[in-house]
């Protein structure tokens, strides 16, 4: 199925819950866990999601104070993780925002379903002269280090596992299975597609199967053609469904510490709104044009805006009606060609008074 048909299939499945629909976006109301359960398998390429943090106990964010015990929050997140794994393509990536206090336990919990491949520290710098709560608080009252960063956990398909599983990427395992089913040895396949390595006789194939690197689109096409020609395997997945994208270069942040500025307060700001630049960075690095990007806790719709601005499709789920109407409005405007630039959305005043809530935004 191509991406347009996949997106349409998602829209059809979620129809009763859709609050607003555009050519490249869906805003979905109600509980996202229930909505997820109705989605088909393997239908989403990228999950970028920002659940209630739980540890910050913000009364103005639905779900943030919903759990008495950390354990209950972690169990809830694992229910999501089980669904994320099911709906994510083999080439998919999931990014989950969280507070530093919950990051380790969340990574272990979600890691039971998907393979953790990175943990980004977002340092949330304040603009000069705008030091927020941090500048005003009495440091002597601190009982541990002031939490001035948040985490972004990154997962791919696969799980923690044996030494073998650890060495292989989901793509590696898939290529290995296809080659074995086709009845070719690594050396035979290498010879047929000419992907010789400088060191070992299995050449590039050995590296792909071990998850050390990935084939180019041309190399993958040659490999698929050779394996399919044996008549022993059905047609292989298209490149975009098999090879996880990761597009960075020297001109963008490629390390796991990010310093995108927090969104400054402005009337109508979501209490946990994430900077659009950070979301755009994630979408650009970890998806192909046209891909479906899912956010299960969409708030003001920032993930959707980032996705659409880069020619991706977005599914934004949000339980609060007030926020899903905001998301619906901004996505509809963006979709009709009106620019939703950050300065316009984020026009704000330096005079806005800060409350303890600004600790995590
Ligand atoms: C941390 S905020 C996301 C903010 C968003 N990243 C933004 O930039 O605006 C979490 C959001 O999840 C929503 N939420 C909480 N529980 C939910 C559920 N079960 N289903 C869907 N949305 C939920 C909350 O209403 C809140 O808007």
Blueprint of the fold:
Elements: H1 3-14, E1 18-21, E2 25-28, H2 32-37, E3 44-49, H3 70-87, E4 88-99, H4 100-110, E5 115-122, H5 132-136, E6 150-156, H6 163-167, H7 170-182, H8 186-193, H9 203-209, H10 217-229, H11 239-242, E7 257-258, H12 276-286, E8 292-295, H13 302-309, E9 313-317, H14 321-335, H15 342-345
Parallel strand pairs: 2-9, 3-4, 3-8, 5-7, 8-9
Antiparallel strand pairs: 1-2, 4-6, 5-6
Helix pairs in contact: 3-4, 8-9, 12-13, 13-14
The structure holds S-adenosylmethionine (SAM).
S-adenosylmethionine (SAM) binds near residues 63, 270, 274 and 318.
Key features of this structure:
disordered C terminus, about 350 residues, Rossmann fold, 9 strands
Q: Could you describe the 3D structure shown?
A:
The radius of gyration is 22 Å and the shape is globular. By secondary structure, it is of the alpha/beta class. The protein has helices spanning 3-14, 32-37, 70-87, 100-110, 132-136, 163-167, 170-182, 186-193, 203-209, 217-229, 239-242, 276-286, 302-309, 321-335, 342-345; strands spanning 18-21, 25-28, 44-49, 88-99, 115-122, 150-156, 257-258, 292-295, 313-317. Helix 3 (70-87) links the parallel strand 3 (44-49) and strand 4. The longest helix has 18 residues, at 70-87. The chain starts with a helix and ends in a 16-residue tail after the last helix. The chain folds into two domains: 3-161 and 246-359, Vaccinia Virus protein VP39 (Rossmann fold); 170-242, lambda repressor-like DNA-binding domains (434 Repressor (Amino-terminal Domain), Orthogonal Bundle). S-adenosylmethionine binds at residues 31-33, 50, 52, 61-63, 270, 272-274, 297, 299-300, 302, 317-320, 323.
């Amino acid at each position: 199925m191509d991406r347009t048909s996949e997106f349409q299939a998602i829209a059809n499945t979620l129809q009763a819950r859709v609050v607003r629909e555009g050519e490249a976006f869906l805003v979905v109301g109600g509980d996202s866990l229930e909505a997820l359960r109705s989605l088909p398998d393997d239908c989403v390429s990228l999950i970028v999601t920002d659940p209630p943090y739980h540890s910050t106990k913000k009364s103005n964010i639905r779900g943030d104070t919903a759990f008495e015990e950390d354990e209950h929050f972690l169990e809830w997140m694992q229910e999501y993780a089980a669904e994320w794994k099911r709906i994510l393509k083999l080439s998919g990536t999931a990014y989950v925002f969280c507070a530093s206090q919950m990051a380790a336990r969340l990574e272990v919990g979600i890691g039971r379903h998907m393979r953790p491949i990175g943990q980004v520290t977002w340092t949330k710098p304040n603009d000069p002269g705008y030091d927020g709560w941090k500048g005003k608080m009495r440091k002597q009252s601190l009982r541990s280090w002031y939490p001035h960063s948040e985490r972004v956990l990154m997962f791919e398909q696969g799980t923690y596992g044996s030494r073998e599983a650890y060495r292989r990427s989901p793509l590696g395992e898939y290529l290995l299975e296809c080659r074995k089913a086709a009845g070719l040895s690594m050396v035979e396949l290498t010879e047929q597609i000419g992907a010789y390595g400088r060191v070992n006789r299995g050449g590039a194939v050995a590296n792909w199967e071990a998850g050390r690197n990935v084939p180019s689109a041309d190399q993958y096409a040659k490999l698929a053609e050779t394996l399919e020609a044996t008549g022993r395997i059905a047609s292989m997945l298209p490149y975009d469904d098999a090879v996880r994208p990761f597009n960075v270069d020297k001109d963008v942040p490629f390390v796991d510490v990010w310093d995108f500025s927090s969104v400054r307060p402005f009337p109508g700001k979501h209490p946990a709104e994430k900077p659009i630049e950070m979301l755009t960075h994630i979408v650009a690095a970890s998806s192909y044009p046209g891909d479906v990007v899912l956010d299960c806790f969409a708030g003001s719709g920032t993930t959707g805006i980032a996705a659409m601005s880069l020619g991706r499709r977005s599914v934004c789920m949000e339980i609060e009606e007030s926020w899903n109407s905001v998301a619906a409005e901004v996505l509809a405007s963006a979709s009709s060609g009106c620019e939703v630039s950050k300065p316009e959305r984020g026009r704000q005043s330096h005079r806005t008074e800060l409350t303890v809530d600004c600790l995590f935004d």
